[in-house]
Amino acid sequence: QPVVTQSSSASASLGSSVKLTCTLSSGHSSYIIAWHQQQPGKAPRYLMKVEGSGNYNKGGGVPDRFSGSSSGADRYLTISNLQSEDEADYYCETSDSSTRVFGGGTKLTVL
Amino acid sequence: EVHLLESGGGFVQPGGSLRLSCAASGFTFSSYAMNWARQAPGKGLEWVSAISDNSVYTYYADSVKGRFTITRDNSKNTLYLQMDSLRAEDTAVYYCGKVSHLVDYWGQGTLVSVSS
User: Fold this and answer.
1) Tens digits of per-residue pLDDT, B46-105?
2) List of chain A residues whose C-beta atoms are within 8 Å of the C-beta of residue B6
3) Most A CBs within 10 Å: which of B49, B59, B102, as the mutation test of the A interface?
4) Do residues B19 and B10 make contact, with C-beta atoms less than 8 angstroms apart?
5) Average pLDDT over residues A75-79
6) Measured between beta carbons, which residues in chain B are less than 8 angstroms from residue A33?
7) Any residues with CB less than 8 A from the CB of A11 and at least 6 apart, and which?
8) How far apart are CA B49 and CA B26, in angstroms?
9) Taking CA atoms, what residue in A is nearest to B107?
10) Mutate which of A56, A95, A98, A101 to test chain B, going by most B C-beta atoms within 10 A?
11) CB of B42 within 8 A of CB of B23?
């Protein structure tokens, strides 16, 4: 079954950009992943799906500042013009026919 | 607008049981697979269980297999999670999710606390 790996933390300054990475395990580099945002004390929120081709499909209401991309087994979430409300935990998710997995999450700090 | 509302959480002693519900609205419930995930205090998300649109297929994480049962009632637009033989390590906020290959909507969660 697939495994997804994320860095535990990231930080960037207000108004700058940050690129978060989700890495798929060997043999699963073509898998689609989803990015989810969880602000402190809130439920997760779906942001987008990212395909191996680099195409991404955002959920309703997700700001244009959020975009996705891909390279090999890596799937990226880029946030531009960082705002204070972007400070959150970000999780990636993938699945195969019988299971689904979440990454350990990346805690994003906006400086 | 898609809306998922979990209920049924609470405090239970080890070895006890709880049944969670997730009431869905704003989409054709019977056309989508559904999912339960959980989050222990201060920890990340953990997938728990999933069910196909017509209930033919059910899937479980190894940590809950044999103790939890996922079901759905498409006539009531409701998803369930029957949790038996609960352990302290099952303490978490439980979230239901609508699945379109991957989760694309989340509920607000319901807290389950297992303690003596």
Assistant:
1) 999 999 999 999 999 999 999 999 999 999 999 999 999 999 999 999 999 999 999 999
2) none
3) B102
4) no
5) 98
6) 102
7) A18, A108, A109, A110, A111
8) 22
9) A43
10) A95
11) no
Q: DSSP assignment of A5-37, as one string? A: EE-SEEEE-TTS-EEEEEEEPTT-TT--EEEEE
Q: Chain A to chain B, count of Cβ pairs less than 8 Å apart?
A: 57
Closest CA relative to residue A31, chosen from A12, A49, A19, A48:
A49
The position carrying tokens 């694309």 is B104
> Residue A85's closest CA among A103, A108, A54?
A108
The confidence score (pLDDT) of residue A100 equals 93
Residue in chain B nearest A33 by alpha carbon: B102
Spatial distance between the Cα atoms of A45 and B83, rounded to a whole number of angstroms? 25
B46, B59, B102 ranked by CB distance to A34: nearest:
B102
Distance from C-alpha of B64 to C-alpha of B68, rounded to nearest angstrom: 6
- Decide: B80 and B34 in contact? Cβ < 8 Å: no
Return the DSSP state at B74: T
Closest chain A C-alpha to B83 CA, distance in angstroms = 19
Q: Tokens representing A40?
A: 């402190």
- Biggest alpha carbon–alpha carbon distance for chain B: 41
